[in-house]
Amino acid sequence: MTPLSPLDTIANLTAIARDRLTLVEPEYESIAHLPMGQVGTILEVYPGESPKYLVEFADLQGHEYAMAILQPHEVLALHYELDVA
Fold first, then answer.
1. Domain total for the chain?
2. Which domain holds residue 46?
3. 18 in a structural domain
4. DSSP result, 24-74
5. Percent of the chain with pLDDT over 90
6. What whole-number distance in Å separates Cα of residue 76 and Cα of residue 70?
7. Cα separation of 7 and 3, whole Å?
8. Four-residue CA torsion sign, 12, 40, 19, 34
């Protein structure tokens, strides 16, 4: 797997429990978890034997609503173009 970098777009492969989330908008304070398949952007990569990613989740207008630190097995890199090299 190609290493992920800041500003890469991902989707979460598992639901993320509320206690692992930093919720930004008050209207989301009552959610129990962030469902699988939400699209996010990697803001920071914490290197190591098993890197971790600080991911921001935002709506279609670009308003951030949650952040979480995720492990590689919890994310899927999304691609907008086909790499045929």
1. 1
2. 9-66
3. yes
4. -SGGGTT-SEEPTT-EEEEEEEE-SSS-EEEEEEE-TT--EEEEEEE-GGG
5. 72
6. 11
7. 12
8. negative
Residue 85, pLDDT above cutoff 80: no
Find out whether 58 and 68 touch, Cβ atoms under 8 Å: no
Can you tell me which residue has the tokens 């939400």?
38
Across 44-67, average pLDDT: 94
Q: Is 18 helix (H, G, I), strand (E, B) or coil?
A: helix
* Residue 36 falls inside a structural domain: yes
Torsional class of 74: left (φ above 0), alpha (ψ -120 to 50), beta (otherwise): alpha
The answer as to whether 81 is a domain residue is no
- Listed residue (14, 16, 22) closest to 44, CA to CA: 22
Tokens 């959610």 sit at which residue?
Answer: 31
* 75 domain residue, yes or no: no
pLDDT tops 80 at residue 83: no
Residue 40 CB coordination number (10 Å):
25
